Amino acid sequence: xxxxxxxxxxxxxxxxSPFHLFPPPRPVLNLHSSQKKFDCVIVGSGLGGLTAAATLxxxxxxxxxxxxxxxxxxxxxxxxFTLKNSAGPFQxxxxxxxxxxxxxxxxxxxxxxxxxxxxxxxxxIEYDGWKVQSKGEMKDLGLEGEGxxxxxxxxxxxxxxxxxxxERVFGREAMKLFTEFTDLILEKNxxxxxxxxxxxxxxxxxKYAAITLTRSLPSLLKIGPKGGKILxxxxxxxxxxxxxxxxxxxxxETFLRNYFNYLSFALSGYTMERTQTAPVAYMIGDLHLPGxxxxxxxxxxxxGGIIDVLVSGIKEKGGTISNSENVKSLILNSSNKCIGVxxxxxxxFARDGVVLNVGIWSLPGILRxxxxxxxxxxxxxxxxxxxxxxxxxxxxxxxxxxxAFLTICFRFNxxxx
Length: 417
Ligand SMILES: Cc1cc2nc3c(=O)[nH]c(=O)nc-3n(C[C@H](O)[C@H](O)[C@H](O)COP(=O)(O)OP(=O)(O)OC[C@H]3O[C@@H](n4cnc5c(N)ncnc54)[C@H](O)[C@@H]3O)c2cc1C
Prior knowledge:
Pfam families: NAD_binding_8 (PF13450). Residues 1-18 form the signal peptide. The chain has 15 helices and 13 strands. By secondary structure, it is α/β, with parallel strands linked by helices. Helix 10 (250-268) crosses helix 11. It has helices at 47-59, 109-116, 138-141, 162-170, 172-186, 191-197, 209-214, 217-232, 235-245, 250-268, 277-288, 306-316, 363-373, 379-389, 392-414; strands at 37-43, 64-67, 80-85, 88-93, 99-100, 124-127, 129-137, 148-156, 294-297, 320-322, 327-332, 338-343, 346-356. Mean pLDDT is 82; it is low at 1-28 and 406-417. It has two domains: 1-128 and 296-417, FAD/NAD(P)-binding domain, CATH 3.50.50; 129-292, no CATH class. Helix 1 (47-59) links the parallel strand 1 and strand 2 (64-67). It has a six-stranded mixed β-sheet. Strands 5-9-6 form a three-stranded antiparallel β-sheet. The protein has a two-stranded antiparallel ribbon with strand order 3-4. The longest helix has 23 residues, at 392-414. The structure holds flavin-adenine dinucleotide. The site of flavin-adenine dinucleotide (FAD) has 31 residues, from helix 1.
């Protein structure tokens, strides 16, 4: 499972800017008592924000507040909601549904955080696969025949039965390619084992990568420069080098490519050209090593599930979670350190720092508003971060999402699907 973090560390560089006037003073949020200052302010109550708050509160003893814009929902993408009809109330879960490595100690980052913070993982239902249905041109689905068609198959986890299923639907050659490729990744000292030693969240794409990577130095040394390069490069490079060496039938390879594009998309929202090898290799192990399975919390992800445990874990140690907090901008001092945020029309201050985990949709707006209001900070410093937050990577993600959304709307409007 991939839980992505967007941590904005604004306390690193000294100011070089000319003097700017502070914005006019604003009322201060009164969460407990007047003039309350927290050690850490965390913006966004998604899995990222809550795990950051739980870690800071429980492991580092920091007094944290989590600010969430929604009136009542907590959990961000991973929230539950209830609808009622004459048959009674029904609880629905939004967001993540394909979860692995949660039911027992594993390399799953979320499971590791729960174990580290002594938080109880809620009871999980374990299941051994799921059904995939897809429609398209037969050749694009990896099937013999002309024109459009449907394909239906079961992804079977835990090392048993998936090969047979691939052979049944896509033929013997596709099964052989799949087995060879996954063996290559899962074999001892292969990419799976290496990827476990280098957690996905240390593989960042910016200039601070060297700082986070040093923590995984022992594992990196074991992998060697070549292994490290493979793990941090896009997965298509590794895939293509395997395919170019194999004696393949293009139709048989189509299934393999579709399957790994699908896994890549589940991890990063992109196909394999834009997904790093490490998380894909890790996911292949999580799904296809003997004994592995897929999990789902018995009571759902949010209510009574993972989100509830995180919320209780934060509150138990004195942390605060506050809804209806629309954070519009940041407060930066003359050293470019983020010392607080402006939520609605109030200022909330942080002694140690601010974690902004609001997602790519909100982040640029908050930074731009900070720049518009101005302050003592260095504008160039902030502009650089805005550029990063609005970079090509983010713009592409937005375009992909908007295209997918338009396609869904279009289909609803025409009434065809
Ligand atoms: C439909 C879907 C299915 C998915 N399926 C899976 C899956 O099967 N397996 C898996 O591992 N992962 C899955 N993911 C990915 C996973 O759910 C996300 O990576 C994860 O939940 C993101 O958590 P987050 O905390 O980073 O962000 P979010 O959950 O987006 O949280 C951001 C929070 O910030 C709040 N916020 C935004 N702006 C402001 C503001 N100005 N002021 C205050 N609050 C603000 C938002 O309201 C939100 O609550 C899925 C994602 C989606 C969308």
